[in-house]
Design brief:
The protein is globular and about 60 Å long. It has a two-stranded antiparallel ribbon with strand order 1-2. The chain has six helices and two strands, in the order ααααββαα. The protein has helices at about 10-30, 40-50, 60-65, 70-80, 105-125, 135-150, and strands spanning about 85-90, 95-100. It has about 160 residues and is mainly alpha-helical. About 60% of the residues lie in helices and about 10% in strands.
Length: about 160
């Protein structure tokens, strides 16, 4: 479409934004049977990943790991705790802090959700050969590289 119009085409940011919107809508639809939002899934999956290494993170650690804002994580944790998916325990080293863990039901829900998300990812990446293809691996590597560039998250040009 853009090539035929004689225009340069959309910016990279615009394309990423459009993919994000499409991906997020697909995630929301796929997770609806589990009564999870995309953000709730992201939090549960992050907690699952951390717990597999034996960690019981604080809300701040979970926010840092997941990339979500700390206040949003607090809100999500409260909602997930009310549903019996997450449990909070006092940190024995710091009585002001809490440690998070998946409740038994939370573990069941997140592992089911992870299967749904893997299937969705395969469908979404089918044109690249599926989620296990070299092209998909290259896309993930590129996205990781862009996300790791912390110095330029504020939109400022790099210092050369």
């Amino acid at each position: 479409m853009w090539e035929r119009s004689g225009r340069e085409g959309p910016t990279t940011g615009y394309l990423i934004w459009r993919v994000l919107l499409k991906w997020r809508a697909s995630m929301e639809r796929a997770l609806t049977p589990l009564s999870l939002t995309h953000a709730q899934y992201s939090l549960l999956a992050s907690l699952y990943a951390l717990s597999r290494t034996g960690r019981r993170p604080s809300q701040r650690e979970l926010a840092d790991f997941s990339g979500l804002e700390p206040m949003f994580v607090s809100k999500l944790v409260r909602a997930l705790e009310q549903r019996g998916l997450v449990e909070r325990d006092r940190d024995p080293k710091d009585p002001r802090a809490v440690q998070l863990r998946l409740a038994e039901h939370g573990l069941e829900v997140v592992t089911t959700a992870m299967g749904i998300v893997r299937e969705l990812e395969d469908r979404m990446l089918a044109r690249l050969g599926g989620r296990s293809s070299p092209r998909s691996a290259e896309l993930r590597d590129t996205l990781r590289m862009l996300l790791a560039d912390e110095e330029h998250h504020d939109g400022a040009p790099p210092d050369d």
